[in-house]
Amino acid sequence: MGQVARVLIMRNVDRLYDYIVPEALSMVAGSYVQVPIGPTTVEGLVMHLRASEIQPVAPEGTVENPSRKFREITGLLDKKTLAPDIVTLILWLSETYICSPYIAYQTVVGTRKYRETPDEATSAIAEGHVLTEAQESVLASIRAKQGYHTWLLHGVTASGKTEIYLQLAADIMAAGKQVLFLVPEIGLTPQLRTRVEERFGKRGVVMHSGQTPKQRDLAWSKALSGQASIVVGPRSAVFAPVPALGAIILDEEHDGSYKQDSNPRYWTHDVANFRCRYSHAPLILGSATPRLETRYHAQIGQATCVSMPYRANRNPMPPIVCVDSKEDPNTRVGGIFSQPLDAAIRLRLAKGEKTIILLNRRGYAPYVGCQSCQTIYACSQCGLSMTYHRDRVFRCHRCYVTAPATLHCPTCKKPRLGYMGLGIQKVEAELIKHFPDSRIMRADRDSATTAKQLEKILGDFDREGDILIGTQLVAKGHHFEGVTLVGVLGIDTALNLQDFRAPERVYQLLVQVAGRAGRGAVPGEVMVQTSMPQHYALDSAVRQDDTGFYQQELAYREELLYPPFCRLLNLVYSGPDMRMVSQTAEKDADYLMPLVAEGLTLFPAISCPVDKLQDRYRWHILIKFSAAQETLLRMQLAGLPAVHRNLRRIIDMDPVSLL
Known about the structure:
It is a single chain. By secondary structure, the chain is of the alpha/beta class. The chain has four domains: 2-108, 3-Layer(aba) Sandwich (GIY-YIG endonuclease), CATH 3.40.1440; 133-308, 3-Layer(aba) Sandwich (Rossmann fold), CATH 3.40.50.300; 320-361 and 422-548, P-loop containing nucleotide triphosphate hydrolases (Rossmann fold); 567-653, 2-Layer Sandwich (Alpha-Beta Plaits). It has 18 helices and 29 strands. Strands 9-10-8-11-12-7-13 form a seven-stranded parallel β-sheet, sandwiched between helices. The chain has a six-stranded mixed β-sheet with strand order 5-2-1-4-3-6, with helices on one face.
């Protein structure tokens, strides 16, 4: 009896193909093969083998076989066979996120090449730090439960979560298994890499997109061969080929960076959960501000929450104070720094202490407009205002369009363009003007384009800086013992976004950046400048009422039927012709209308809040559904007609943003 192989061919087609396995070839699922398709021969990957009595067929069109159904595999390639768990992961990713098998393969494996790496002496694992009582309790709980389980480690900033991760990793490595340790940003990997190297020596590797192809290949190969016992990296490292997976750790699990923003739009949590379930390994989700969905899953018993409500050194959490910018004499007349924040910075400088200023807006001025005709100088591709940068360039941070800065309005031609709003470069300039003798540093995606540059900026600030001005890059994961003041500017913009998750994101950002203050011997303080001090997200942060915020936000989500009380699917359409985009979206909405009779909520096709991006018009259809309705939804989606070649239709399952 022969065999039939189901093969993923290395082309972006939407299905797998069946081929006869010649008796002379021996292969398994995960073998790379050469297969015919049409008039050519291409590389393929065997995904599944089954027994069959079908014999190889004669060429198409002959009397013996007028229709030809199966063809033979023509050769076995000399490439490293993929492990069964990776093959299964590719299939799961393709099905779950409705992408072609080839796109799923590219996401999981990509163009990496297996490289033989010399065996290195196994490093001894260094002793961990002495644990607090809370850390001991958390570790004991996790160690007591074997096999697959999801843990939510809800610990305040500086409670010692990283030490728990490292000691759990040591346990798993001692048992001969491997650990994936994920962080949300590449910029956080250098700091973590140092701690991993100190603890585990050469048994750890780092994997991220900022590496050279050779560096990525070597890290991938060490993980696959088992030489690397712990893999550290951001979102993409969840696909590292570890044959003996013992646990996955997601630090800062609340972070939106764990959602992939291109096809396939996967949630790292879901991929990690699938891999842990397959390998019977624990999944540890850690955060000081867990996602609402994660907390709710723990509440209803789908995960176990273990808490650390105090800092490891028992230092108090810094108080958060809101300064009403409508009432402050400085900000009322257009000043950047309120009187209390200005005085607090001066006090820290006098004491030799450090300050962090958070403003999550790049550039110098986020709005450029004509003071004569009131026209906004907008991006040609999305219609949103350009941002002025101090290198005399207008930039669109959505479309990456640039233009030379000018004072002449494109509409009325008068030299009356003005720069409005608050950007991080403007704050930096004001800090230099107000505090000329202080050492001021800036950390954003313009000043730190690589992980190495960010590492240098943060290291310089820790050693010799006085004030660090930064975007959300400075809000998470960093440990600076000398920081005793955090100032937050421009938070109102984030609160006013047209997204149901905006209050949660603002609350998380405030609590996270507040955690940078008072980590050393001197207590910290946080000042938030806002015109909305009464907003419940800000009020909860000020009162440090984490439970209150969670309950209020949960009630709001339940009333309006948003996650975790439903799931979302966002169909996003884009193209250069607005009429074609809108008509396609509306036709698809009509096709999906039968889902309403089955209890799903289907919103009308409308333009996206950001209705044009990179010179492409954007419409979307939002669908709310339950877990029980998912199969029905997927069946209906499978029947959607193909879109015009000039259009794109993105299927975003569980979207992180609706903009």
